[in-house]
Write a structure and sequence with these properties.
- The protein is an all-alpha fold.
- It has helices spanning 23-44, 48-61, 66-78, 82-95, 100-112, 116-129, 134-146, 150-163, 168-180, 184-198, 204-217, 220-233, 238-250, 254-267, 272-284, 288-301, 305-317, 321-334, 341-352, 355-366, 373-388.
- Helix 3 packs antiparallel against helix 4, helix 11 (204-217) runs parallel beside helix 13 (238-250) and helix 19 (341-352) runs parallel beside helix 21.
- The N and C termini lie far apart (67 Å).
- The model is unreliable at 1-21 (pLDDT under 50).
């Protein structure tokens, strides 16, 4: 999608109050104007070093020339040298506080430097001069989203949609906003709006975003067609492959999920997260040999708590209860949120006939808050067996 930029003119001051010029002054102004035109031509054609040289020539004659200061800032910004660009925009604004181009450029530098609060401050100054610039409005809404100010972000996106009901940046921004705040149904509404607007030509990222909303809502079956369409367009798209694998995982169709986990690994064989997910899938279908192989491959890259957990569950399956307990206790110590381990640990202690271990894990579980219904029911069932034994 192309970017729409509607920027207000530069403020130079009152032209009618300029003094009359003699011939040498006029010659200098003509030379500066011509050099400036040449610099902006280089800027437009991405000949950035040549553009900078032109603008530097102007500054040697007129150090306060706003065209040259902004021009160098724009050139460095295009080079992605945002800190250097910011210096020139700041210098320009120290001389011309209402220069919209310098305000826009400086805010964009801060945005790219991920200094979102500073970007917001500058963009708010811009909006005080021109509150109808949809490019600035969407960017400031994006910045408020980054700093997690949901109310202000939504307000500005809606302001854009009131002016331009089909503005893609505002619609996409709202989709991201609701997704970031885990309001997936609302996010889905905006992604579907984009899909309706653009049909078969919709951006592939909209398709994967739609799929991800369904994945988060656990409506896996509805998410699959979006990921499949995205994958049809780009056979190596990571997000489509991951989305399909995770949807089939959520539907407990492990064999189908493995197809996509392994397709990702064909492209990125050292992705330890995917290796662990694939190991889980092999474990759940009873393929212990491949499960162990994938878990060990993940651990050979770096420590992974879920690979250790997977191996512990295999130890339990193989009847190696002592090793299983040792590994699961290590994992639980590292991440207390893994409540689902409590029933597995208790079951291992029961199998080992370890009464002290049983009492210890029961006591610890009693102190855990906000336990899921599934974990609670599983633990209660095993606790009754522990009491019997």
């Amino acid at each position: 999608m192309s970017e729409y930029k509607k920027e207000a003119p530069i403020h130079h001051g009152d032209e009618s109050k300029r003094p009359s010029l003699d011939g040498s002054d006029q010659h200098q102004l003509d030379h500066i104007a011509e050099t400036s035109r040449q610099g902006y031509h280089f800027l437009k054609t991405n000949q950035l070093s040549e553009a900078i040289n032109c603008f530097r020539t102007i500054l040697e004659e007129k150090p306060d020339n706003n065209y040259a200061l902004v021009g160098i800032g724009d050139a460095y910004r295009k080079k992605k040298r945002y800190s250097e660009a910011a210096v020139y925009y700041q210098h320009c604004l120290s001389l011309f506080p209402k220069n919209n181009y310098a305000l826009f450029g400086l805010a964009d530098c801060y945005r790219n430097l991920k200094q979102f609060h500073r970007a917001i401050e500058v963009w708010e100054s811009y909006l005080a001069l021109d509150d109808r610039n949809v490019t600035v409005l969407t960017r400031i809404a994006d910045a408020y989203r980054k700093v997690r100010n949901q109310e202000r972000s939504r307000e500005i996106y809606m302001q854009v949609l009131n002016m331009e009901p089909e503005n893609a940046y505002a619609i996409i921004g709202l989709g991201h906003l609701y997704y970031d705040f885990k309001e997936y149904s609302q996010a889905l509404d905006y992604w579907e709006r984009m899909h309706t607007m653009h049909g078969e030509n919709v951006d592939i990222r909209v398709l994967t975003s739609l799929g991800n909303c369904h994945r988060k809502l656990k409506t896996f079956h509805d998410g699959i067609p979006y990921f499949e369409t995205a994958l049809h367009r780009d056979r190596s798209n990571f997000y489509a492959l991951f989305g399909l694998a995770d949807c089939y995982r959520g539907m407990n169709k492990q064999e189908q999920s493995l197809d996509y986990w392994n397709r990702i690994l064909n492209q990125d064989p050292h992705n330890k997260v995917i290796l662990t997910r694939a190991g889980d899938a092999y474990r759940k279908i009873g393929d212990v040999f491949n499960a162990k192989d994938y878990y060990h491959r993940a651990l050979n890259i770096d420590y992974d708590i879920y690979a250790v957990l997977g191996l512990a569950l295999i130890h339990k399956f193989e009847g190696l209860y002592g090793q299983a307990v040792e590994s699961m206790e290590t994992v639980l110590t590292a991440d207390q949120r893994l409540q689902r381990l409590y029933p597995d640990i208790l079951e291992c202690y029961i199998k080992l006939g370890d009464r002290a271990g049983q009492q210890d894990i029961i006591s610890r579980f009693n102190g855990v808050r906000q336990v899921s219904t599934y974990v609670q029911e599983s633990f209660d069932r095993l606790r009754s067996l522990a009491m019997v034994n």
